[in-house]
Each structure stands twice: as C-alpha cells, then as structure tokens.
Structure to design on (752 residues):
C-alpha cells in the first residue's frame, strides 16, 4: 500500500478486500484491511480513492450494520491510529442519509444492550462520526439513557471522551431540557475534579458547545457554566495552598490545573492575573512562603498550564518564554522537560519570532537522558519542519541522524520513519545535500572551511554529534550506520555525485596536504570505507514492470547506461590518480589505512578486471597487488553494516521492520500521506541533474593533469607498455568516448 506505482497500490487494496472476504471472522484479516484500505482511501490517486471508499462502504459499514463488525470496532478502540484514519475517511467522504441510518440504529441498539462501559468505546467512535454527518440519526431516548449512565462512564476515560464528542456533534439538534440537564451534570463533575484527565478536554468542549447552543436560543441561565468550572478550580488552588497538603490532594489538584489550562484555550474565556499567579506559584520546587515540596506531577502540570495561558496572550508569552528556556536547562525532572519542550514547539507556531532564536535549545532535548523526551522532541521538530515553521539546517539534520543510533530501539525506529517518509516529502535531497558535511561533523570537524558551518553554529547550539568521533569500534560502527541510512535514500546519480565530492573534498585535500593526516585520520578512513561500500555503488539495473510504465523504464535504461559510461570515465580520469598518489603517501607514513585503500581499489576496479593493468599504468606493482587481491575471497564491495548473527538480537532499524525506507517522490503531485503511511518512488524515475555532470567534469579537470604527469614519469623511467597494449587502450578510450557521446545524444532526445 506504500508503493509508488498506482497499479501496485490498487492490487494491495484488492488483496486486502479479498483476504477480508475470505476470513471475515479473523482478527488478522480485519487488521490487514484497516492497515491497507483506510490509508489508501486518502490516496492522491482518484481511482484508488474511489475503489477504497467503495470497499469502505461495502465491507466496513455494511459489516457494522449487519452486526458482524465487532472485530473492526474492537480494533478501533485498541489502536488510536486506526481511529484517526477512520475519522479522516469519514470527514472526506460523502454519505447519504440512508447509507448511515442503519449503521447508527444498530450501534445505538448494541450500546443499549451492553452492561460494561469499557466495551463500548469502539461503538462510540463510529457513532460520533456518523452523528457528525447527520445529527438527526441520534435517537432521543438513547441519549437520555446516556445521561443516566454517565457515572459509569466516569471510570472509562476513552468511552467517556467519545460520549462527550457524540453529544457535542449533535448539540444543535438536542432537546433544550436535556441540554440544560447535561450541562449541570458535566459542570458538577468538573467542579469536583472527578473526571479523568484524558476526558477533561472533551467534557469542556461539550459543555462549551451546549452552552453556546442554549445561549443562542435566548436562555440566559446557562451562560455561566464554563465560568463556574473556572471559579471552582481557582478556589481549589487557594484551598490546597492554605492546607499545604499537596501530596494528599495531588490527583485532584492535577485535574484542577489541567482543567484551567484547557479552559484558557477557549476563545470566549479570559484567564485572570490572579489565576496566573497561583499557577506560577506551583512551578517552583517548594511552595512559596513554606518548606512544602511540590510533587513532580503538579510541577509538570503547572508548567503545561502556563504554556496554555501563553498561547492566547502574546504579552504573557513574552514574559514567560525566557523562564521556559531557563527551566528546561536546569530542571532534573523529565516530565517537566518534556512538557516545556512541547510548549515551546507549540508556541513556535504561534509566536515564531519569539521562539525561533532559541530553537537550538529545543534541539538539545535530542540528547535528553529520558527516552520519552527524545521521542517527543523528534515528533515536535518534525511537525515544525513539515509546517515550514522551522528550516532545515545542518545541526538540526544532525540531530535527526543521531536518532538512528540512539540507545533506544523505539527512538531509532521513529527517527528512521520520519526521515524516510514525512520529512523526505519536504526535503527529498537531504541525504545528498548534507552527506559530506555530515562525514566531517561525525568526526568532530564541523568547522571545516568547505562546509559553511560557521553561521549555523552561531544560531544553534553545538549538537552532540561530535560524541561519535573516535577510533573505537563502537563509534565507527555508529558512523557507518548513519552513512548507510543516508546512502540508501539516494538515487544512482546522487551516489555518483557524492563519490565525486568525496574524492575532491576529502581524498584530494589529503593528497594536496591541506588536511592533516594525524588530526583527520578518521575522516580519511571513513571516506575510504564509504567509497568501497556496497551502498554507494549506483545500481542502474532496470527490470520491466508492465505496459503502462514501459516508456518511463526505457528512459531510465538510457539514463542508466549514460551514468555507467560516465562513471567509468570518471574512474579513469579522477579516482585512479588519487588512489595512486594516496598510496604513495600512506606507504611513506606506514599508515594502517593501506589495507582499506587496497580494498577501495579492488572494489572500484572489480568491474574492470580485464583492464586493471591499463588503468593502473602509472603503477604496475599496485596493479599486480590489486589483481592478486581480487582473486581472493570477499574482495567485492561490502555493506557498511552487517546483519547480526543472532536472529533474536536483530535491530528493527537495520533489518526488516514496519517502518520501510522509501525513496523520496519524484513529483510533487502526490499530497503527503497520513501518519502511519509512506511513499516510494523508483530511483529510475529521477531526472539526471546537470549538477552531477558539472561535479564530474570539475573533478576530472582537477585530476587529469596529475594522471598525465604520473604516466609521463613512468614512461620516462622505462616503464613503457607494449605498443600493442597502447594501441588497444587508445581504441578502448575512443570507443568509450563514442559511447558517451552516443548515450548523451539519446539522453537529450529522451529528455526533450
């Protein structure tokens, strides 16, 4: 269902429907149907949308109306992701009154027969969305019975939240007496702080909606329900501080603080200065004027409440934002750090200029000791990047890369998922644009002149990516994991360009002695390891798929041949001279990197085994060494990371997992898919960029003189090749040039 090809996604929907129809009473088939059909119902392709929405009506809604959709309802209750996708599908799909009437009737009858409130959540999830479409489908006697069962729902926050949502959705069609009674009951529960925190926001939203409906009808008796709740919370704050027994009242006080924060988000409600002072008094370690310690839960709720106050008052935000940044750096309570980080990320969307200058301090939460804080930081910053409230910069990208080698498997999976799907839509060339910069930064050399890191370092705090610098095996393996994830997101032409950049910016600078071997030894080692890896090899193989894509694949085949010819020419003109010169330098220094350099030479020359002596004409001894090593085992390109030997210890980020790693889409026509889905585009569909041509030519021009000079020196020293071989080499070079010219003309014709 995540494939780039329309035909594959269509077939996935057909397969999921077929599987469900064959095993209607099995949970695995229902789960598969929800995982495939719901996301595809929001697909950008209209034919897929229509097919899946038809399946939604035929299989999902019909199963519920027939009373056989119990498994679907249970899965919606258990997994919030399914409930979110279901809500989106209902919002974007048009249904007639007759299509939903039977569904509403069956759901209401089923709920009336149930005695256990904990099993009703799935029914209420569907009913709330159905009623939002047609409020008249909610029966009067049914909703009256709901009011009587409200006490039973208090202990089930998920069910209570859906009951409140259903009531709010049909507020305008409810009987006046019932609405008034519901307001009184909900207000009384909120004033006693007996409502679970997970359901408070739903209760307040319902109370506000019902109050507005009653007020619009001219009934002035209900105008003070929301104010009554606020007064009750303020009074409870004062009483709790006077009694100084915060531990015993911790649950009720937390509920009161959360209630006041949610009230402040209502447009019609204004928070008084006295309430702000009371809540601020509960953000310090000890109660003001006494030695009473404030529980950690109260501290966390108080900071979150202050953040909500700031959301609706810019002057208050200017006053408290510096306080937030001070606290997030000094508190040792993970819940407080987490809440403040979320507050600042949220305020960034409201008051961008006030928070953006401190975004680096939010990014520091990537290195928090708490896994919860690190995961929330990933999600929050990814959301800001997607909404363009935050721009990609090197250090921010490095923070996301650190998540790929996090100690927590959950953080690893989340970071891989975000970089592969949601964020790749916004910046499809991230891996290519930041690769060389990242290689230096991972080895603690972010200030390298070619990387333009100075300006960014002034606006962002230095990241802990330097912690991966070092010659120990653990650091090296972590760096290789990051290189692996960057390279596997690149198209073939980008890999070719990265290889050229590495040769020019890394190996070339070592040969020219502009980079010191002692201080940058790990940079050179990583460069050689990457260049000899399996991941950087441009895979240009193209397989036929089906008739509708023949033209695209034919174009990709021509482009692939062109890339292959360019790579061979680049190999002879740029890479080989650098290899030979670097070999001489490493031999003089007796460097342990000679073995890695030999592996690199074997890897890049393996496909030209018959021409090694001609290519390495400047160093016959090295040519013989390369040929000998090629005859040995395991001298082909090796992956940067190797799968673990023990199956039980396999990492979900390096081995198959639910978070696939698709390539960024080639076009912008497809809208971003919902959370939990991903998108792929075949590498062959990318357009060969002119930048690759320019990079390859510049590297070739810089290295051609060195190569010709080395050849001339070897000829003067008597290391002349036989004329027969020279003639053969000239013919092969002529053929190669002709082939490049021919493929270039074909590529230009195909592009036109």
């Amino acid at each position: 269902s995540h494939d780039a090809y329309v035909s594959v996604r269509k077939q996935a929907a057909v397969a999921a429907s077929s599987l469900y129809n064959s095993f209607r009473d099995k949970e695995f088939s229902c789960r598969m149907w929800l995982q495939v059909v719901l996301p595809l119902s929001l697909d950008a392709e209209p034919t897929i949308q229509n097919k899946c929405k038809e399946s939604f009506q035929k299989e999902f809604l019909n199963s519920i109306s027939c009373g056989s959709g119990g498994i679907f309802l249970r899965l919606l209750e258990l997994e919030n992701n399914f409930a979110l996708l279901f809500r989106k599908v209902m919002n974007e799909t048009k249904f007639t009154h007759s299509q939903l009437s039977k569904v509403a009737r069956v759901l209401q009858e089923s709920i009336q027969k149930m005695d256990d409130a904990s099993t009703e959540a799935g029914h209420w999830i569907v009913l709330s969305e159905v009623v939002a479409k047609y409020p008249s489908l909610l029966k009067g006697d049914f909703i009256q019975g709901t009011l009587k069962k409200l006490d039973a729902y208090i202990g089930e926050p998920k069910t209570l939240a859906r009951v409140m949502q259903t009531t709010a959705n049909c507020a305008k069609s409810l009987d006046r007496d019932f609405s008034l009674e519901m307001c009184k009951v909900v207000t009384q529960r909120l004033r006693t702080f007996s409502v679970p925190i997970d359901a408070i926001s739903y209760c307040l939203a319902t109370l506000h909606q019902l109050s507005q409906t009653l007020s619009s009808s001219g009934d002035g008796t209900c105008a003070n329900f929301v104010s009554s709740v606020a007064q009750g919370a303020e009074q409870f704050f004062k009483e709790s501080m006077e009694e100084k027994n915060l531990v015993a009242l911790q649950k009720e006080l937390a509920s009161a603080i959360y209630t006041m924060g949610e009230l402040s988000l209502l447009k019609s409600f204004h928070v008084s200065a006295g309430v702000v002072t009371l809540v601020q008094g509960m953000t310090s370690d000890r109660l003001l004027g006494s030695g009473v310690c404030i529980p950690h839960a109260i501290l966390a709720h108080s900071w979150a409440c202050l953040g909500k106050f700031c959301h609706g008052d810019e002057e208050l935000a200017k006053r408290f934002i510096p306080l937030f940044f001070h606290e997030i750096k000094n508190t040792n309570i993970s819940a407080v750090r987490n809440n403040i980080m979320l507050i600042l990320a949220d305020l960034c969307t409201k008051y961008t200029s006030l928070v953006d200058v401190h975004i680096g301090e939010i990014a520091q939460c990537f290195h928090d000791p708490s896994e919860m804080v690190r995961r929330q930081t990933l999600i929050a910053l990814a959301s800001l990047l997607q909404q363009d409230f935050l721009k990609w910069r090197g250090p921010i990208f490095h923070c996301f890369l650190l998540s790929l080698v996090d100690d927590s498997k959950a953080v690893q999976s989340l970071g891989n998922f975000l970089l592969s799907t949601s964020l790749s839509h916004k910046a499809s060339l991230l891996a290519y644009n930041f690769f060389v910069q990242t290689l230096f930064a991972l080895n603690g050399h972010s200030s390298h002149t070619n990387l333009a890191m100075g300006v960014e370092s002034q606006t962002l705090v230095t990241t802990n990516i330097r912690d991966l610098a070092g010659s120990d095996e653990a650091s090296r393996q972590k760096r290789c994991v990051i290189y692996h994830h960057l390279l596997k997101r690149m198209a073939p032409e980008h890999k070719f360009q990265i290889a050229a950049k590495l040769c020019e910016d890394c190996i070339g600078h070592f040969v020219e002695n502009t980079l010191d071997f002692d201080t940058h030894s790990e940079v050179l080692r990583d460069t050689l390891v990457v260049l000899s890896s399996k991941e950087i090899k441009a895979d240009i193989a193209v397989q036929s798929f089906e008739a509708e894509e023949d033209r695209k694949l034919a174009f990709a085949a021509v482009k692939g041949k062109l890339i292959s010819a360019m790579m061979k020419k680049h190999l002879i003109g740029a890479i080989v001279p650098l290899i030979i010169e670097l070999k001489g330098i490493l031999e003089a220094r007796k460097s342990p990197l000679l073995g890695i350099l030999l592996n690199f030479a074997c890897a890049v020359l393996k496909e030209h085994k018959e021409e090694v002596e001609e290519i390495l004409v400047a160093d016959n001894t090295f040519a013989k060494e390369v040929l000998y090593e090629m005859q040995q085992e395991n001298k082909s390109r090796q992956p940067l990371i190797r799968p673990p030997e023990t199956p039980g210890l396999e990492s979900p980020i390096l081995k198959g997992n639910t978070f696939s790693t698709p390539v960024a889409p080639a076009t912008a026509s497809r809208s971003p898919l919902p959370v939990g889905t991903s998108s792929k585009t075949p590498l062959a569909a990318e357009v060969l960029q002119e930048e690759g041509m320019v990079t390859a030519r510049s590297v070739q021009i810089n290295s051609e003189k060195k190569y010709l000079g080395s050849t001339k020196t070897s000829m003067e020293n008597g290391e002349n090749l036989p004329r027969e071989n020279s003639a053969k080499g000239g013919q092969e070079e002529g053929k190669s040039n002709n082939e490049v010219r021919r493929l270039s003309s074909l590529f230009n014709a195909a592009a036109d």
Notes: Confidence is low (pLDDT under 50) at residues 449-462, 541-548, 645-708, 710-752.
